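Our consortium's second objective concerns turning raw sequence data into structural hypotheses that experimental partners can test. To show how far this objective has progressed, the report includes one record in full. It was chosen at random from the queue rather than selected for favorable results. The single chain below, 417 residues long, was entered without modification.
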Amino acid sequence: MNGPRDGCAHLSRRHALASTATLLSGSVAGCLGARQRLGLADDGGLSVRWQSDQTTAYDQNHHLFAVTDEANGDKRIVAPHSSLDGGDDCAITAVDAHGASAWQTEINPAVCTPHAVGDIGVGVRNGTTEALAGTEAGTVIGIEVETGDETLRADALDSIGYSAPQVADFPAADHVVAADFAGTIVSLDADGDVAWRYTFDEQTSTKPIVEPSLADGDPALIVAHGTRDDGAVTALDSEGDTRWSTSVGATPNSLRRVDVASDESLFVVGTASSAVAIEPATGETRWTASFDERTAVGDPVDDRVAVGVNDGTVRVLSLADGDIAWSQSIADSEPRLNAPVIGHPFGGDSPMLAATTYAGRVVLLTPTGELEATADHETGIYVSPKFVDLAAEGRDDLLIMDGHGRLVAFEAPETDA
């Protein structure tokens, strides 16, 4: 697990045949050639550029990975690896732009569980780029992405470190803001000491947003929190006072700040049944788009935002009023979706949308919702993908992390010039 392995010599006939029925596994793809076309779309499929070899016995890893740059500009993809209780495969791992192992920070097997490592965050402190994560043990960990050296270890949380920590100027410069699943939020100073703490006593599963200024110019922390049937988004100032709090009706699962115009933005929150847009200055609700299923808010594009709804459908909503610009069903028997992302897999200025399903389907859609390419991965996918230009070719690759924690880089089919 500490470095790349050559699995070609151990490839079984059963594994090869089973893999070709869906998406060829990384070991098969490596033996047959990483650029062989493996997708299922009639007009050309996604192909595997590489697949990492770090895996876990647990097959439902569901915390977000992150992509960052080293000081020399090389990419690092950092993944949270949780596993079965007491396992020896829980870790924070990093690979380079080619999928080769870069470094690994192991998690004590005594606290290795399916929630051992939370979402990965990225931040810069004192000129050093760090990967940040919370753990089930309540520890906030920082790691220098270039070297893998530990930069922070603070036992500061009261519960599971679920969402991604971040570097932010709240309440002062270069602090690390982290939240736990039970609703406690802390801000850590340069020494890792708690400089600020607030507790909601309600579930907090999505990363808070640090808003540099509200109407009066003061910074605020925007937090989505709630119980199963009663959720809210709350703005806190640096004194811990509530500036505003807006009910969103159900448990929030995602929170995004999106620009509507050059001088206007919205907070868009996904809940167990809807997407809700909120005015940053006042907390007033601009619109609610109800779908009666869990809704995950994805990337914005122009004056719209993409959402994945657990009825198997990707929808693109107008930021002005929440109306549906277009929708596309991408799932069959397993309707649960991850939040969609926007990127440029063909280069140029025209964006494309990518989405993944819990069943392992990977889909590329045009700006109008038409199916461009697809592939069916051999195991489930429980986190959103990311578009990244891994090869510095001017076109994005599509990264996914599957339930076993494997990172897979896809590239879009080539088009006629």
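The partners drew two points from this record. The mean pLDDT is 87. The two ends are 41 Å apart (CA to CA). Both points have been shared with the crystallography group to help prioritize constructs.
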